[in-house]
Every structure is written in C-alpha cells, then in structure tokens.
Sequence to fold (497 residues):
Amino acid sequence: MNQVRVRFAPSPTGYLHVGGARTALFNYLYARHHQGVFVLRIEDTDLARSTDASTQAILEAMKYLGLDWDEGPEKGGGYGPYFQSERLDLYRRHADKLLDSGRAYYCFCTPEELDQIRQDAVSKGRDPKYDGRCRNLTEAQQQQFINQGRKPVVRFKADYHGSTLVDDLIRGKVTFDNNQLDDFVLVKSDGMPTYNFAVVVDDALMRITHVIRGEDHLSNTPKQIQLYEAFGFAVPRFAHIPMILGPDRARLSKRHGATSVGQFQEEGYLADAMVNYLALLGWSYDDSQTLFRKAELVEKFTLAKVSKNPAVFDLPKLQWMNGVYIRELSLEQFYQQALPFFQSWGFVPQEVSPELESKVKHVLRILQERIKVLSELKEASYYFFQDQLHYDEKAVQKVLDKEGAVEILHSLLPELLAAKDYTQEKLEPIFRKAQEQHQCKLATVIQPVRVAVTGTNVSPGIYDVLAVLGRAKTCQRIKDALELIKQRQGGSASVQG
Ligand code: GLU
Fold:
C-alpha cells in the first residue's frame, strides 16, 4: 500500500476549537499509527475572514497538544506551499484545465439574476439551484458580457445523471442523487477559488490518501468526487467523523462554555489529558478503558472504532481526567507545569530562588491530590504567597463565631510561638494537648486555626499548612483572627444591646 498521507486543513478565521482539535488529533493518530505523514494546510482563501493571528493561535494550540505535523507551516515539505493563499496559480492552472476539457465554463450572471433564478425555481417547486444558463454561451455572447464590464465566475459542469457513491470508512456507503447537484462555482469573480475546488486540487496534489474530517463536510463529498473524476485524479478514501454536541444535544458552541483549545490551556488543562479526552469524542477502544496515554492511542487508534453517532462533550469528565493526569505528574513535572501560573498571578517572581522553589514544591505536594485544573491552584494556595487573607464569611460564622474558638486559639498561641520546628512531629502534640485541655474532638481544635490561617474551612492537612506558612505567619494570623472575633462580637453585642 502507498504511504498514508493525511491532512488537517483549518481555515484561520478564529481559534482552534474542540471540534477542529479532535479532527486534527484523529488525523495525527491515523498518520502515526500507519507510520504515515501528517500534513497541516492552512485554508486561508477567505481573505475577509482569515487572519495571521488566527493562524498563529491554531499553530500554538497544535503545539500545546503535541500534534506535531510533518509537512506544513514552519516545516515546509515536498508538496508546498501549505497556505492556500500562496497556491493561487495552481488553482488558476487547474481551472483552465477544466475549462479546456469542457468540464467548466464561465458564468456571467449577476447576483440579481442568480436571485431571480432561485426565486423562479422555488415558485415552480424546484430546488433553488443554478439553472446552467451560461453553460453554452458562444464566444460572441461571452465577449458581450465582458464588454458590459461583467466579471465572470468559473462554474463546474456537474454531471446530473445517476448517483455518486461515497464509500465512507466510518459512515459506510452513502449514495447521493446527482440531480441534487448544481453547477457549483470553482473560481469566484475576484479570482479566488472556492473551498470545494481548492480542497480537491490540494488534496490531489499533496497526494492525500485519506480525508478525515467532520461530518458536516459529508454533503460536499459528492461534489468533490465529481471534481476528482473530472480531473482524472485518484479519489482518496473518506472518513467523516461524528459531530460534537453539548450536554443539551445541540451542536457544541460557545454558549456551552469554553470551546477553544487555548482557553483550556489557560485554565490549566494538561495537554495529555486534553488529548486523551478528545480521543474519546467519537472513538473508543472498548467500553472499559478510559485512560490512554498518547503512545497507547497511536497504537490502538483505528477508524473502524470511530462511532457514527454524535459525541457529547462532558466537561466534568474532562475535569476528572485532568485531575488524574495531575496526580500522575512527578513533583518536578508538576512544578514545571504550575510555575507559569504562579508567575502570572504574581505569587512568584520570574527569577525563583532555591528557597522559594522548595516552598512552591511543598505547596504543590500538599495540593496535588486536591485540584483538577491548574487554575484552581490560585484560590487553593494564595494564602501561602499573599499577606491579605479574604475570610470566607460562612467559614468564619461556622467556626470562629462558635463558642470556645477564642479560648482554643488563646491556648494554642503561646505554644505555637514557642515551637521550634514547624513539623508534624512538633505540631501534633501541641494540638493534642489543647484537645485534652478543652475536652473536645481534634477537629474542634484544628478548625479555628485552619480558618485563621487560610480564611476557609477546607485546606490540606493543618500541619502541612503550618509547616509551609512557618511560625511568624501562623502566629500573626491567629492574632488577626482573635482580633476579628473580638470585633465581630463587639459588633453583635452592640446590635443586641
Ligand atoms: N477548511 C475546511 C474547514 O475548516 C476543511 C474541510 C476539509 O477538511 O475538507 O472546514
């Protein structure tokens, strides 16, 4: 068999969305599984909507996911250029071929005339498609239009007879009635190729063997097959992958929340978790396995296991999966992933001293089990890095306002001030002693300290927290909490009085 060559062909008109990333991933996995070539081609012929910023965002997102392409932007390759806007002469030459062979023709109809044609068709109960009236213009008629200053488009002379079979690797055999086709435009009046035309020229010239793309393109496929045949090009295999829906079963869109890959990256989803999760949007190996490292995906990915049914984007599942991947990181890996986040929040400067590095690692070690997304580290760890606590009102009411809290903090404070080392071994006896003294549960002693030093009633183990904070901060915060309680009690006393 010929070497497998697949491509991902985004239009740079926005960010890389989950659906596009999943298409890119399936192409990547298919290429790697078959030791084939993964081509990245930028379809930027829509000049009004394509931007360099979008191209960059797409390349960045691909790099973040680790979907390295073999040919394309920044890489080059033997079948370039890989930007459609740089291939205009190729489209021109191929349009000429079809004009010469009689499979394409110039159409001079104005937008108003086209509108009229559509309206007439609808009023007669027919499909609103082009009626082919420019198919057989004489040279004199054409010249007349040109003299009127009309700029023609090039249309394909479609074959309306019979049917076109799409033998899809995922959807099976799908037959399209050719009388549904019309003489679609190949080259617009400004000289730019249409999607259906450029995609066929490129896929053929780039020797693409398998076209793996979203199911929304299935209806374009019969047009493209007719074009391949008109050129005498070999038709590639097609595989149309199912759509991605939101939880309400409507097509996944912005109103369902984050859908751009860049957003997920910013929120602190790990690339490996994203790749694992995206792979399961339409593909499964067997029902029992959910976690797949990339190498395993490459080994196991086949189109035969891609479903025909739409996939539902399940954010809680992605979050869970990201938590699993976070817990698998070594402390060093976790640090490398988390550091840029801490820096962006101003918790840590660009230059990190060895002491600060070990403090950050300590924080990470005690939070690794507790977060699902890196951005959660902000709320979960700010009290280690910033002086100003924001007290959670509910926690304060539940814990600090409770009877006995003041006494517990008062009895712990001198002991904590006197403690030499802030280690579990040194701290635990202090808390145990207070527990005995106050005849209560250990948690009753711990909770006021927790709220005092973190502002909330949920945190990692108290001894770990105090160990990171150290004596000065711990004791200062307990004093601040005592002051706060005093103010609150004074306040409520005066209300009652
Ligand atoms: N540029 C097209 C898109 O983004 C590519 C479709 C295809 O893969 O043929 O939808």
User: Anything to note?
Assistant: The domain at 5-84+244-312 is CATH 3.40.50.620 (Rossmann fold).
